[in-house]
From TrEMBL:
This is EAL domain-containing protein. The keyword Transcription regulation applies. Residues 612-744 form the GGDEF domain. InterPro entries: Biofilm_reg_signaling, EAL_dom, EAL_sf, GGDEF_dom, LacI/GalR-like_sensor, Nucleotide_cyclase, PAS, PAS-assoc_C.
Length: 1023
């Protein structure tokens, strides 16, 4: 039974000098304030698991324990008060508490101190991905500016590894660069410790060759070989203030409050101070009888004993953990029984009826009785993540408060398991130092369990791969098909048959030699269409194997591509269909479709007779590959069969129709008046739509038709087919679902298209793309909220092209995926660069194409870019057009869900222009609506336009969605939007799209913002 208030602590780690001090300080504060604790180790990345939500009254969030979006969920969704430590939440607009040390002022004092020692070449070492260290960097810049000192690029060392190892790496870099600095402010004490260790090892001296000041003032800093000058953060006061703040918020809701705690500079030898020349250890030797000496000596002896105990504990943990022998809580009972009351393991087994993880407790070990007391636990009470951990056990003393540590770890398929340990304040107070070292080593436990899960998953995957390989071997041996893989990068060809074959420097590396000479051009045509236009590779050809007889075969293949869209591999099969042809289908299929060879002969005969004019119509299904991917090939086959039936019913006696492979059909339509062609094409489209609707499938099917005329467009079959293809390409480029007759200008269009394709490939290879930025601001205050990145292409001649000039072609030739990945990466890189320069993080909106969302590489590419650049996903918004969502809803829904899981916001672009707008809001997990600029433009001049915008805003508000109005061009529009409650605006009234150099004038300067808030806080405190 829960007697006291319970505080939940979300912390990235439990160990290390800093986090050990943090956990210890929180536990001391919790005991003084008589509250229980649940401490959850998050691992510091992409953690959004609702553990403990039913157990916790309020959350204390340490540093970067969780992403911003989950931080907001704690307050807005789970309705829990929140207080953060060393985490800046002002940009999140939360009603939470925030306790920070005055990092900026502390850093400034450290730089002033180094300057007093005569240093002018002073550097900064830290991570720009952590709020505390970014403020220290701002303090460094501010101090250097006030002192009139130059800051060069090689004075700044940005690293996410601020451990001992990271310090050694930085020392190596400074040595390699021949000491560009003579002094440095380093953001952690452990990093300084590593630097000193490596510098001394290489024969350099501290502070003579380089003076150093660190943070944290740990015991390690005090007893380093060169005692480290350090900034003491007064963590005890910080954590007491944070816990007090949170307890008050649990009792009574409060508005946002910022607490800023001053730091203290502790000088020792590493900075060059004289009073640091005599270390504490030396004082012990020279002043054995002094009271101060006795205190220092006692502290030093305790430090040595603590290290000895830590080595013993490490040894025991290594026995059980690092040897992977830890399977049950009882395996480490001897280690934990003096410090903990109980331990439990809970694992996920599928999902409950609400779609939430279903948990099953596997062990509840009582360290007092040394028994697994699982049978005494009501397992249903703990079968969800919010209901865990199993705190307040029957073993708890009523006069004490409990402390529970939770170590979440993932198993395969993202299943969660929880390792929990419960103790009490009185249990640990006599051996607090040893207890905290065991808590520190829980980090090893969590990492080990992750490692074990990874090993198990790898073993499972290896087994599955072996089974798949064996199965594939059997299929390959039994299959009548010829399977092939053409590797263009390595110039290799694999075949599953022992055929006499030699790689040649041809388009398909020599596979053409199996094809009838008359069909080689047809093979190459399909390959180029697949390569350039991303069309499905599916065609019918005559094949000859080992100098045997030619036979009819269907060749189908798929390809893999590199980052600039070039095909790396072509993988497919060659299937013998000669038996099918001999079985009543050699010359003509029973449904009235003739084969390509027969069709060719019939056209030759019509041309030879010269009796009538005719149209050659090339027809294919729009987005047929997507339909196959979404609904399965059996549905695609049904559609082809239905389409064949519709087409054969539409043609007249004397006309001819053939299926050229895949979804491509060719019709010879004889006419007397040219107007008959347009009527015929329209009838085909209408008949197909009626029949597909009759299939009762939720499929938006359309066809595109390209038409050439005999004899005006050509008098040879090949020429007519080529021009009909050109007309078809033009239809596709213009939006599909239409028909067009060939016109001479289309050749120029095709040539221009090929030229643009070449330009795009070269732009990807040579980094010729560029971004411009358009600010998005709060409608009321005009303060910047975010920016939208917009793509431009700079040609070799220096001409800047806007997206409408090249994006449609990029989509048609399969280059939109690598170009889209370039945009995401470039936006993330630039965003991180602004943060390093001291600007506050803002939302960066990126347009995402529907073809990107369809790419199987999209999500993995996004995750890789985030990992590579260090960008916080909460700072990104992906804008997806409403049309894309509606046209591809089945694919897009799942992808959007995964995007949201990553932590990226999703906006619906051009909202309101579709008939299905409301269904989008209902079915998709979106956060932001962007009102289309056409509505914004009309709202001033048209009362209906005003009412539409008002309705959109009201609907969005009722669904807790944020609203961005695009295309705001004057103050009247802005005033109306603000009056209606629109959150943000974007448009030429604020700014046109501008360069990265110009956009910085809009970016919030963190140094200015922090000073304003800090000064206001001081004024409030004084009053």
């Amino acid at each position: 039974m829960q007697r006291q208030r319970t505080i939940g602590v979300l912390t990235p780690f439990l160990g290390g000098n800093y986090y050990t001090d943090v956990i210890e300080g929180i536990q001391v504060a919790a005991r003084k304030l008589d509250v229980n604790l649940i401490v959850i180790r998050t691992g510091g990345k992409y953690f959004d698991v609702p553990i403990g939500m039913e157990r916790v009254d309020g959350w204390l969030v340490v540093n970067f324990a969780v992403e911003d979006h989950f931080l907001k969920q704690l307050e807005e969704v789970y309705k829990k008060p929140v207080v953060t430590v060393a985490k800046d939440i002002r940009k999140l607009n939360m009603n939470s508490g925030m306790v920070v040390v005055n990092n900026k002022q502390a850093a400034k004092e450290a730089i002033f101190h180094l300057h007093k020692h005569g240093h002018t070449k002073i550097g900064y070492l830290g991570s720009m991905n952590m709020d505390d260290m970014k403020y220290r960097y701002e303090g460094y810049l501010s101090a250097m500016n006030e002192l009139g000192l130059e800051v060069r690029s090689n004075y700044i060392f940005d690293s996410d590894n601020m451990s001992v190892i990271g310090g050694k790496q930085m020392a190596e870099k400074i040595i390699k660069e021949k000491f560009p600095i003579t002094a440095a402010l380093v953001s952690t004490g452990m990093c300084v410790f590593g630097m000193i260790d490596r510098l001394l090892e290489k024969g350099y001296r501290v502070p003579e060759d380089i003076a150093l000041i660190g943070f944290d003032n740990s015991t390690t800093a005090r007893y380093s070989e060169v005692p480290i000058t350090s900034i003491q953060q007064n963590l005890d006061l910080v954590l007491m203030r944070a816990v007090e703040n949170l307890v008050n918020r649990i009792d009574q809701p409060q508005p946002f409050k910022l607490d800023v705690i001053d730091c203290t500079l502790i000088t020792r030898k590493s900075c060059g101070c004289d009073d640091g020349d005599v270390s504490e250890v030396k004082e012990i030797k020279e002043n054995k009888n002094s009271k101060e000496s006795t205190t220092v000596q006692f502290e030093y002896v305790n430090h040595i004993n603590a290290l000895r105990n830590e080595n013993n504990v490490n040894y025991e943990f290594n026995r059980y953990i690092l040897s992977y022998q830890f399977k049950r809580i009882r395996d480490i009972a001897d280690l934990l029984e003096n410090y903990f009351n109980w331990g439990s393991i809970t694992g996920q087994q599928g999902y409950n009826t609400q779609g939430q993880p279903h948990l099953v407790m596997k062990e509840y070990f009582n360290f007092t009785t040394r028994k697994n007391e699982l049978k005494h636990i009501n397992l249903k009470e703990y079968d969800t993540l919010p209901a865990n951990p199993p705190i307040f056990s029957s073993q708890q003393l009523k006069s004490d408060n409990e402390v529970v540590y939770v170590l979440p770890y993932r198993l395969t398929q993202n299943n969660w398991s929880l390792l929990s340990f419960g103790t009490s304040h009185s249990k640990t107070e006599q051996r607090f130092s040893e207890y905290m070292r065991i808590v520190h080593l829980f980090d090893i436990v969590a990492n080990t369990f992750d490692r074990l899960a990874l090993l198990d998953e790898s073993a499972t995957l290896r087994k599955q791969h072996q089974e798949l390989s064996e199965r594939q071997d059997v299929i390959t041996r039994l299959s009548d098909d010829i399977l092939f893989e053409v590797n263009f990068d390595k110039k290799k060809v694999w075949l599953n048959r022992n055929l006499s074959f030699q790689v040649k420097p041809t388009t398909l590396l020599g596979l053409e030699e199996f094809v009838h000479p008359d069909d080689v051009s047809h093979l190459k045509k399909h390959f180029y269409e697949h390569f350039r236009d991303n069309k499905p590779f599916y065609t019918e050809l005559r094949i000859q194997i080992n100098n045997g007889q030619y036979y009819y075969a269907i060749i189908s293949a798929e390809s893999t591509r590199d980052h600039i869209g070039n095909i790396q591999k072509l993988i497919g099969s060659i299937r013998d269909i000669s038996k099918l042809r001999n079985n009543n289908d050699i010359e003509e299929l029973s449904n009235g479709l003739v084969n390509r060879r027969r069709f060719y002969e019939e056209i030759k005969q019509v041309i030879h007779d010269g009796s009538r004019e005719f149209a050659l119509c090339v027809l294919d299904i729009d987005n047929f590959k997507l339909i196959n991917d979404l609904y399965g090939h059996h549905v695609g086959d049904d559609i082809i069969e239905t389409l064949s039936d519709v087409l054969t019913r539409c043609i007249r006696p004397g006309d001819h129709i053939a299926r050229f492979g895949g979804d491509e059909f060719v019709i010879l339509f004889q006419y007397e008046h040219v107007d008959e062609i347009d009527v015929f094409a329209a009838e085909i489209s209408e008949s197909i739509t009626e029949r597909i609707v009759g299939m009762n499938r939720d499929i938006n099917l359309s066809v595109s038709v390209g038409i050439s005329l005999y004899p005006s467009d050509g008098q040879e079959y090949d020429d007519l087919l080529k021009k009909a293809d050109i007309a078809l390409y033009q239809v596709k480029h213009n939006g599909k679902n239409n028909f067009m007759r060939y016109e001479p200008y289309m050749i120029n269009f095709q040539q221009d298209k090929r030229k643009m394709e070449k330009i795009l490939r070269e732009a990807l290879a040579n980094d010729q793309f560029m971004l411009v930025y358009q600010p998005q601001v709060y409608a009321r205050s005009k303060r910047i909220y975010g920016i939208e990145v917009l793509l431009r292409l700079r040609t070799e001649s220096g001409v800047i092209l806007s997206p409408d000039k090249f994006i449609p072609i990029a989509e048609s030739v399969g280059l939109i995926v690598p170009i889209g990945a370039w945009v995401i990466r470039a936006a993330c890189v630039q965003g991180m660069e602004w943060i390093r320069q001291g600007y506050d993080p803002i939302k960066i909106s990126i347009n995402i194409s529907g073809l990107q969302l369809k790419s199987i590489q999209f999500l993995s590419s996004v995750r890789a870019i985030l990992e590579e650049t260090g960008m916080n996903p909460a700072h990104l918004t992906f804008e997806i057009t409403e049309t894309t969502i509606i046209d591809q809803s089945h694919i897009v829904l799942n992808v959007i869900k995964e995007i949201r899981k990553i932590g990226i916001s999703v906006a619906i672009d051009d909202f309101g222009i579709s008939y299905s707008s409301l269904s989008v809001l209902k079915n998709f997990p979106i956060e932001i609506l962007k009102i289309d600029k056409s509505f914004v433009r009309e709202m001033v001049t048209d009362d209906k336009g005003y009412k539409i915008v008002n309705a959109i805003i009201n609907i969005a508000k009722s669904l807790d969605l944020r609203i961005v109005a695009e295309g705001v061009e004057d103050s009247t529009q802005l005033e109306l939007l603000d009056e209606l409650g629109c959150h943000y605006i974007q448009g030429y009234y604020i700014s046109r799209p501008i360069s990265k150099e110009e956009i910085v004038h809009f970016l919030p300067n963190k140094s200015v913002l922090l000073n304003m808030l800090y000064n206001q806080e001081q004024k409030d405190g004084a009053s």
